[in-house]
Amino acid sequence: MVGTRAWTPEREGAPTREGENAPTRQRAGPGTTRRELVGFATVGLLAYAVDLTLFTLLRGPAALGPLTAKALSFVAGCTVAYAGNALGTYRHTHPTGVRPYAVFVAVNIAGAAVQLLCLTVSHYCLGFTSQRADTVSGAGIGMALATVLRFWGTRTLVFRTEGKVGSWTG
Fold first, then answer.
1. Which of 28, 29, 25 lies closest to 10, judged by CA?
2. Which residues of the chain fall short of a pLDDT of 50?
3. Are 146 and 114 in contact (CB under 8 A)?
4. Do the Cβ atoms of 166 and 103 come closer than 8 Å?
5. d(CA 76, CA 65)
6. pLDDT at 29
7. Model-wide pTM > 0.85
8. Dihedral angle of Cα 160, 44, 52, 117, to the nearest 10 degrees
9. Main-chain dihedrals φ then ψ at residue 4, nearest 5 degrees
10. Which alpha helices (DSSP H) does the chain contain, by range?
């Protein structure tokens, strides 16, 4: 079109016809992906600490049943992870409304299902029934696969940029 210019990195933040600055576009690359991974991991560790601490308190001093305690600690951990990602790692996406949180919880439930599936396959299908095997399959392999799923889901389904699904490769 005549009179329009394509976006280039040099034009980022350049004045528009109305005299306002154009919105900053996120450039996806190895640096962006690395920052997202570090932020996501940091927030995830904090959320895990909240989940574990609350579960321990609810099971011990509060004397709640294991499923009730885990459900409550899971919701608290998800809330901390969502807030940390929304205010930190993915603050440039400006999520609004209930939908992003609901999708975030759904992604985390899917991650938990992956961990349970790994444990189920290892324990009941493959016959690895020791505590060590359960830990390796559920908290090791399962957690690794679930983390990949959670990172992808968080990045592409919850904290999208410019209304588009984010790229897996950055």
1. 25
2. 1-27, 166-170
3. yes
4. no
5. 17
6. 63
7. no
8. 70
9. -110, 150
10. 30-59, 66-84, 99-120, 131-134, 142-153
